[in-house]
Amino acid sequence: MNDLDTEIRRAMGELSGAAPLPRAPSALGDLPPRRRKVVRPLVPLVGVVMVVAVVVATVMFSRDRGRDIAPVLPSASSAVGTTPPVEPGDEIVTGLATTPPGLAVWSVSRLALSRPVASTVQLFGRFTASGDRIAAGLLVTTSIDASDEPNQASGPTVQVGDVTASVYDDGHGERWMAWTAEGVLVEASYRGFSDEEAARALAALSPRADPSDGFDPASASVDLPLVAEDRHDPARAVDLTVFLLGAADQPPTIQAVNTGPKLIVASGASIFGSTATILFAGTRQPDGTIEAPLTGGVENARHRIDPDGSVVSAVAPTAEERAALLAAAGPITVGDRAAMLRAASDRLSRLPELLAVDVGSRAVVLRGGTIDEPQAICVRTATTERCGLGYGTLTPAEGEPHAGRVEIDGAMLLFGWQTDSADPVAALDWRPGLPRTVSSPDVRVVQGEQSLPVDGRRYWIIEVPPDFADVAIGTLRDGVFDFPGSTFSGARRLGP
Amino acid sequence: MDADALAAYTKYADEMVRFASAIVGPSGADDVAANALTRVLTGDAWRSARNLRAFLFRSVVNEARSQHRSTQRRLAREVRQSRSDRPAEPSVRIEVLDAIRRLTERQRAVVYLTYWLDHAPIEIAEVLGVSMRTVERELTVARRRLEVLLR
Fold it and tell me: Looking at the complex, does the CB of residue A330 fall below 8 Å from at least one CB of chain B?
C-alpha cells in the first residue's frame, strides 16, 4: 500500500468515523414504498448460466512469423480441471516442476473460484506487423446487468447505433465505453481507435440471439476478426492452484501474496487471467509467453495460455524472475504437489514455538514472529505437526476468523483463531452461487472444536468431512451460516 | 415495520449509516440511510433477497443518487463551512469532503468498500450488482481523481 492508498484509507476512515449514530427505529418515518423500476432481461438468467463455453479462435501471434495464424484454444470458466483417476497421487497436473534457484515453495493452496454473473469477454482485433501486440482492437464484455438501474451517463458520451454510451479514460491511456440496454451491460475497451471509430465498429457488430452472450463473430469485419473469447459461467468453478515462493531461509511476508513470487495455475478463464484480456493488454515475448498485468490491478505478470485453455501466470518483481518462474511450470503429480506443501510445513515447524493451545485431542500451535502476527500456524496431533503460513492461505479474502488448513493422512483440517465473542466458526460444503448468508438446512455445515478462551481468543479446529468437495469457512448463528470473506471461492483439497 | 424488519434494521443500520457517510458526507448520512432502510424494510422484496446486506448497500447508493443534487449542495456547504472555520464535521478534513464531492456516488461506494471494508473487487461487484470490470474501472478512475485531489 503506497502513500496515496494510505491517504484514501484514512479519508474513508474519517468519513466512517464521523458518521452519526443510526436513527432509532421509533424515529423512522413512514415512507411510501418507491415504485420499482421494471428491468426486463432479454432471457432468463438461467438460460445464460447454462451456456457452455464455446470459444471461437481465429488469429493469435505466432512465435516465428508475426503474421502467421495460431489458434487460441477454448477457454472457459466451466473448464474445471479434471484428470482421469489413476493411482492416488499419480494424477498429472500443471504445477511448479522445478524450483528457481534461491527460492523455496512456502505455500500451495488450491481453490474453486466462481463468478458473480454470467459474462462473455470477446477480443476483436488485428496484430502489429511483428505480431507481438494487438495494434487495434476492441475488448468487449457483455453481462447481465444486475444493478437496479442502468449506468447513468456521466461525462462524455458517444452514440453506438441507437444507444448512448458513457466514455471513460483511466488517465493512463486506456479508454472504454459502457452502456446498458435491455438488461445487458456492455463494456468495451479499445486501442487504435478514436471514440467515434470504436463506436462505429461496435455498432457494426450484431448481438447474438441472447445479447448477454456477446456479439456474433460472423458480423465482425475482415480486418477486425474475433481473436479470442471467454465465457464465465457463475454456476461453474475454475480450479485454481497458487504456489507461493520466497527465499529459502525466510517465510514470505503477507505482501508476497500480492507481489509474488508466485505461480498461478487456472483451469480456465478466471478473474486472474482471461485469454481475451491477456491478449488485449499483453506483449508477446520471444518464448511465446505474454507479459500482461494480472487482472485485479496487480502488475507484472507473465502468462502462458495452454492448449487446453488453462492459464499459467507467474507474478514476480522483475521480467527475468517472471520468465524463470513460468519456465519452471510443467507437469507434476498430485503427490509431488502435496510433497511441496509438506516440505514447506517442515520448514515452518522449525520456527520457535510461541504458543500451543489444546483443542480437543489436538492443539493449535503458533510459531515465529509474534502472537498477533505469527509466521506459522500449525496443528499438532498425537503423531505429527503440520504448519501453514501465519497469515493464512485458506481463502483470498478471509477476514475474521484467521484460518489455515492442512491435510494429514487424507483428512483436511481447518484451524485458526477468532475473537472470544464471535459466533462459532463452521465449515460449509461450498458450491458456486451461494448467498452471503445461508441457512444450514439448505447446505451442509459442520462445526469443529473450540478451545477455552485464551487472552480474548478461541482457537478452533474443524475436520472437514471427506465428502465435502470444496469448503468455505464462516460463522454460524441460529442455524445461519455467514461468510466473513468472499462467497466466490472455496478451498479445494490438494490430494494425498 | 414488523419484528423481522426491525431485527434487520438493528443489525445493519450502523453499517449503512457509515457507508452513507462515505457517499454523501456525515451530515447527510442519517437521512440517506434512514430513507433507504425504511423504503426497503417496509416493503416485501427484501424478505426474498439473496443477499440482504448487498441489497441494502445498493439501496443506500440508489438513495444517495436520488438525492444527488441535495448531496452536492450539502457537501459544498460543508466545504464552505469548513473553510470559514465553522467546522460542521470537525473530524473530517476539508480536502476529504472536497475530494469525495468530485466522485460519483458509485465511485465513492467502490472506494469505501475497497479501502475501508477491504472488500475484493469480486465482492464489491456482488454488493453493488455490477460487473467486476465496472468495479475495477470505477476504482481506477476514482483513485486517479483522488490522487490529484488529496495530494
Answer: no
CA separation for the pair A78, A486 (Å, rounded) = 19
Q: Closest Cα to residue A239, out of A141, A300, A312?
A: A312
- Per residue in A154-201, pLDDT (tens digit) is 568 899 999 988 887 766 667 888 888 877 888 899 999 999 999 999
Q: CB of A368 within 8 A of CB of A354?
A: yes
Q: How much is the pTM?
A: 0.68
Strands A489-492 and A103-113: antiparallel
Nearest CA in chain A to B103: A154
Burial category of A273 from C-beta neighbours within 10 Å (exposed 0-12, middle 13-18, buried 19 and up): buried
> Does A25 reach chain B within 8 Å, measured CB to CB?
yes
Question: Using omega within 30 degrees of 0 as the cis cutoff, is the peptide bond preceding A317 cis?
Answer: no
Predicted confidence (pLDDT) per residue in B73-132, tens digit: 555 555 544 444 433 444 566 777 677 777 878 888 898 888 888 787 877 877 777 777
Nearest to A16 among B21, B37, B99 (CB): B21
Are B38 and A423 a contacting pair, CB within 8 Å? no
Closest by Cα among B41, B145, B34 to A11: B145
Provide the number of CB pairs (under 8 Å) joining chain A to chain B: 180
C-alpha to C-alpha distance for B44 and B41, rounded to whole angstroms: 7
Q: Give strand pairing partners of A360.
A: none
DSSP state of A298: B
